[in-house]
Amino acid sequence: MLAGAAAIARRTEAAAGYAGESVAGNYILARPENIIYSTCLQCHVDCQIKAKTWDGVLAKLCGNPYSPQNYLPHLAYDTAPAAAAAADGKLCAKGQAGIQTYSDPYRLRRVLKRAGPRGSDKWKSIPFDQFIDEVVRGGALFSESGDKRHYPGFEEVIAVRDPAISRQLADDAARVGRGEMTLGAFKAAHKAHLDKLVDPEHPDLGLKNNQFVFDAGRIEHGRKELMKRFTKGTLGSVNCFEHTSICEQSHHIAYSQLSGHATHHMKPDLANARFVIFWGTGAFTANFGLVPMAEKVTTGKVDRGMKTCVVDPRLSNDAAKADWWLPVRPGTDAVLAMGFIRWMLENKRYDASYLSNSNKAAAALGGEPTWTNATHLVKIEDGQGRRLLRASEVTVDGPNGRRPLGGPDEVVVMVAGSPVAVNPEDESSPVKGDLFVSTTLSRHEVKSALQLVREKAMAFSLEEVGKTTGVSPELIERMALEFTSHGKRAAVELYRGPVQHTDGYYAGTAIILLNLLIGNPDHKGGIVKGGGHWHESGGKPGSVYDLKAHPNAMKVFGPPITREKAHYEDFTLFRENGYPAARPWYPFSGNVYQEVIPSFVQGYPYHGKILFLHKGTPVLSTPAGNTLIELLKDPDKVPLFIACDIIVGETSMYADYILPDLTYLERWGTPHVTPDVLTKTSKVRQPVARPLTEEVEVDGELMPISLEAFMIALAKKMGLSGFGREAFGPGTSFHRPEDFFLKAIANIAFGDKKGETVPDASVEELKQFKAARRHLPPSVFDEDRWKKAVKPAEWPKLVYVLNRGGRFAPPSTAYEGELAHKKLGKMWHIFVQQVAERKSSITGRYFSGVPVAPGQRDCKGKALARDTRYPFTLITYKEPFGGHSRTISNYWGNLGLVDTNYILVNAADAKKRGLRKGDVVRLVSASNPQGRVDLGNGSVVQITGAVRPVEGLAPGTVAVSGHFGHWAYGSRDITVDGHLVRGEKRRAAGLNPNTAMAVDPNLEDVCLTDPIGASASFFDTSVDLVPV
Amino acid sequence: MSSQEDRSTPESGGIFASRRSFLKRALAGATVGSSALLHARGAMATIGAGEKAGSTAEPASIAPSPEAFAEGNALERMRVDLHRAMQKPVADRRWGMVIDLRKCINCRACTVSCVAENALPPGVVYRPVMSEEIGSFPNVRMKFLPRPCMQCENPPCVPPCPVGATYKRPDGVVVVDYEQCIGCRYCISSCPYGARSFDFSEFHEEHAPRITDYETRPNYEYGREHKRVPENRTASPMGNARKCHFCLHRVHAGILPGCVTTCLGGATSFGDLNDPDSLVSRLSASEHVTRLKSELGTSPKVYYLT
Predict the structure, then answer these.
(1) What is the pLDDT of residues B91-116, one digit of tens each?
(2) Which of helix, strand or coil describes residue A919?
(3) Residue B283 domain-assigned?
(4) A294 and B264: CB-CB below 8 Å?
(5) Which residue of A317, A783, A964, B27 has the fewest CB atoms within a 10 Å radius of its CB?
(6) Which residues of chain A are within 8 Å of residue B15 when distances are taken between CB atoms?
(7) How far apart are the CA of B41 and the nearest CA of chain A, in angstroms?
(8) How many domains would you assign to chain B?
């Protein structure tokens, strides 16, 4: 005790105090010249970050206080960066560990070429130029390892390089597809070019160029536009994809179809909502995302009396904090939503006034920015609503006998029992129609859209709903009552949980419908579309560059290899084969990730030749993605496989070449903001850390190897359009990444409207800008060169934006009275004709235009049968510190906070099965009965894990998180240039639940999929746990 | 091939990336800001250790910012609180923390922020978040509890220290003088909260092909630069007891502690308990406030709201 007291006395005077030197500027990591603002990409929320460097070393990542996602409310945009240096914004555990994604000791620096069969784990490093040369030329590329096989190069696959020829062929080919031109006539007209078609007998399938496929896992705005530019305009292929269908695509498609394609994503206005149902998602773990959303919910609940309900089979962090937890049985979300709808309609707990607005004028009169087609009459065919009744199809008595009620552009509603023609967009004559109509008009059996919904909902009694979903009728009633007790300040939020099922679209539309029934869109506390962004690609009155311009772009045609956004019936294959198609077509969806490689290999509708995989790992991240291994490892199936990756990953390990990429901390981007943010926000991603890939020369320009370097090098090598001189038109060039990105950021600085520019950076700010980049090599940052990418007058404004990591409208612009400032302002399609009038390409049966609850089915429409050998349903979940496939290198987060993942089992189930905490079991299913993954190279991964019995999980369910179970990504030994690089075994901890997931029994090479929204089914697999 | 051998390859042009080679290149070829590199270190006043750092003559590049730049932002308010406190003599400040458990969402952003801010090695965690499941299906809940150092008024960790390396500062923060600490770990076993841990001189990338730059960058605990390199595993704070210090090096620079600024649920508040106008003073006076193991008489300055 004496020693301690002495110590205190000794040091009291030493605590110097605050005056003088102790301000932010004296802490190295808080000096503006050691700070660059950029944008995260540890997940798609794309938080804005403040990157702090120490002596050129990336030392700390925080949130950017200028951004509404990371500081609540955010700093005034004109705050000087020197002052903002002392304000750190929020960033999640995953984001802060991003330094370790960048700095991963296993990152690739040079191009790798395989030095053995695919998947052999043997590589040699080669010069970038050699790589470009080889993939362009093709040939016997692996003859060194005794493989005499011919590998196709870009020279061979990019058969058409003259845009005039592509244009010539495109229109006639589509005519052949639709049956408006005969094959003979086409062949006669284009005989010189038939050899350039992927299938001359089916010209509507497009050019051979379509055999190049750009398959991107995560790609975002900025790079996304480049991907399309490169694949379509430059290479003439229709095939570029993202991974959306393994994320939550059916939710987007549900919003898109219901809103008439006005939006694909809305979010509750959490800052004002009084009650929110989080349906298969939350605000505390993932979604879009925990950083911007969490505080609105916690402060809402504690300081504002907000209540929340979480629908989730697992007691998530959100559910733990919720007022109510509804542990729904996986895959019964649509049924549960039907229960809510039924109760609301039966008890008249809906906004009848909102729903009865039949056109824009009526909505405006009621102060509503949006309206619905609830009252519009729908013609019934074979008992189903098929198409809207047109006013021209109804005759009424007129002064000169019968006359049509109105024109073909008008729909019909009943007003107090009499038909009225309505133009839904009419702004001058308000019409309020009858909500529930079932009648016959001019011999047409018709029902109002809301009547159709009611009939579907009434098919389930609340008791049946309770039995099916595991949620008691009393609780459903209680929640529906709560939901309808706050006016428009209640909302339902959905994301991945309810839609990654084969009925995902229907479940999604049923859940969104709850919002429409209380008329909450665009209202404070309702669902909102978000503040949007300034348009970086140009095309607005204020824009200074048109980055969509692409002189001499190719015209692409033919269906994407995934058959997405294409109607089967518009192609020759349909007329020859009818129903069922060989594989499903996805006319309503896009980015059908799980279908890319299987379709490429099966050759339906045509074979692929060059697979370019970028920042994606379908083998790991797709349900049953392990079935892809035997496809990818065979060059006869995937003739040339190039992966663009930062590391040797679970999928890139099978590539012929790995092109090393830069991480998000070394490169550019212009990602968009989540709808959770109500103020206009344009984000900038820019290099903050030294590039770790090899510096190479591309046509005289030094740059680190990256995706952009590859695109520029390839286009120039082949003399193609879209890159290089005059890439965007006269006076422009695209020789380096910043030639594109700085122009995009200049567009942000100048805004959408004329005169909407940001201020010039001050002299001090210009100095800080330069000093903050002193650690970047000239191949990345060269001030003079950067200045030349834009016009001199634009430079100080560009710096102003770069110094703040983007452009952010003030918090005061979020609302306009009781409404969101930025409104959807469109009609909602409670009856979706676009869907109702189309048939499944497999069954030939019509889809439903209103939500239904068909249960989980395979692609032939057959209900998935319960298999008693597999008594549990498998679900997955995320931890707030891990991503799906790219965070196992994060020693602080993913690996630092937990050692492994577990197989969560309901405690009572575990007891019944005699399973105790820590027991190691094998996860098996009908699709993977042995619970193993054969890597095709002599090694086998066992799908085993430790059991953790928990109370917070619906009985009959097992849950496994998605951050572990790697077998590459630095976890396995590989050989490079004859040197052994040892893997870190702890990166291989745990298990990957995707490997147990069900394949479609009819296709066998792809997971179960929603035929409308195309979401991959993650939560419909029956599994068992076998003690090891 | 051993991992040692692996480590030697990248510098000589191996396939795995090395930032050192880029640094060299940047230094050799850079005309941009090469002089700026020179003033990038060693410019801070030390905190509590009784000595000045090398170059305090470096002029401050910014002025203290007393006003909040965003209305209604709790972090901005606390930043202003902090600034006010720093105008007072050190003995008049009493730093404290209030954690609203209703707002903790178990995201662990605080844990990682602290590890990153203080460049903490494996096994050293100043601010874990504990979680516990309570009840049985379907009536089940989870409780989350962030646990920094309690900064006790009567710290049980101080008396056992045989060399006086750990002590309570006049502003109430319990600190470790790394230069005095002999690594005996008596303090670790005497803390009833388990808030102290031992630095075993390890690196996160110990078993990877290389230990990369961020692991060897210095931290600035107590306002001093502590460089951590694998070649010298005896340099402090390696081999020392380590604990949360409320990020005094940030606080003295006018910045809130790392766990506070990044708390995603807005659960963590920090400030001067002696200032009746500070947010923490107001919150700590709530009737829902509690402290951990208060029966021990430690009198923590970390308060929990439940």
Answers:
(1) 999 999 999 999 999 999 999 999 99
(2) coil
(3) yes
(4) yes
(5) B27
(6) 108-110, 112, 123, 125, 976-977
(7) 6
(8) 1
* Domain interval for residue B72: 39-305
Which CATH number is A249-529+823-855 given? 3.40.228.10
Q: What is the pTM of this model?
A: 0.94
Using CA atoms, how far residue B231 sits from A427, A851, B203, B217, in Å, is 76, 65, 11, 13
DSSP secondary structure, A728-780, as one string: TBTT-EESSHHHHHHHHHHHHHH-SSTT-PPPPPPHHHHHHHHHHTTTS-TTT
A75 closest CB neighbour out of B69, B87, B267: B69
> A640-678, pLDDT tens digit by residue?
999 999 999 999 999 999 999 999 999 999 999 999 999
Window A:951-990, CB contacts with B under 8 Å: 951-955, 970, 976-977, 979-982, 984-986
- What gap in Å lies between CA A553 and CA A551, rounded to an integer? 6
User: What ipTM was predicted for this assembly?
Assistant: 0.95
CA A863 to each of CA A335, A432, A856, B29: distance values in angstroms, whole numbers, following the listed order: 15, 41, 6, 67
CATH number of A857-1027: 2.40.40.20
Is residue B183 within 8 Å of residue B241, measured between CB atoms?
yes
Beta strands in A519-615 (DSSP E): 527-528, 610-614
Delimit the domains of chain A by residue range. Answer: 24-91+670-812, 111-247+546-660, 249-529+823-855, 857-1027
**Nearest-CA distance B244 → chain A (Å):** 17
Q: What is the pLDDT of residue B47?
A: 55
Which CATH number applies to A111-247+546-660: 2.40.128, 1.10.3470, 3.30.2010, 3.40.50?
Answer: 3.40.50
**Residue entry with tokens 């430790």:** A946
Could you tell me the pLDDT band of residue A22, with boundaries at 50, 70 and 90?
very low
B15 closest CB neighbour out of A61, A952, A976: A976
Interface contact flag, B261 A317, Cβ < 8 Å: no
Is residue B10 domain-resident? no
Which residues in chain B have Cβ-Cβ distances shorter than 8 Å to A315? 133, 140-142
Read off the pLDDT band of A145 (50, 70, 90). confident
Q: Would you call A45 helix, strand, or coil by DSSP?
A: coil
Q: Is residue B7 one of the residues assigned to a domain?
A: no
| Residue from A774, A806, A822, A475 nearest A677 by CA | A822
From chain A residues 243-262, the ones with a CB under 8 A of any chain B CB are: none
Which one of A65, A73, A774 has the shortest CB-CB distance to B37?
Answer: A774
Please tell me if residue A781 touches chain B, with a CB cutoff of 8 Å. yes
Query: Torsions phi, psi of A691, nearest 5?
Result: -70, 140
Interchain pair A294, B65: CB under 8 A = no
pLDDT at residue B71, as a whole number: 81
- The stretch B216-228 carries a mean pLDDT of 94
Paired with A418 in beta bridges are: A415
Contact indicator for A170, A555 with CB cutoff of 8 Å? yes
| Cβ–Cβ gap B163/A3 under 8 Å | yes
The residue in chain A having the minimum alpha-carbon distance to the alpha carbon of residue B259 is A90
B267 located within any domain: yes
Dig out the tokens for A635 from the structure.
């060059």
Contacts of A761 (CB under 8 A, 6+ apart): A769, A796, A797, A799, A800, A803
| CATH code of the domain containing B220 | 3.30.70.20
Chain A partners of B100 at a C-beta cutoff of 8 Å? 302
Interface of A with B in 87-116 (CB under 8 A): 87-93, 96-97, 99-100, 103-110, 112
Selecting from B1, B45, B105 the residue whose C-beta is nearest the C-beta of A979 gives B1
Which chain A residues contact residue B50 at CB under 8 A? 10-11, 14
B-chain residues near A285 (CB < 8 A): 107
Digit-coded pLDDT (tens) for A589-632 = 999 999 999 999 999 999 999 999 999 999 999 999 999 999 99
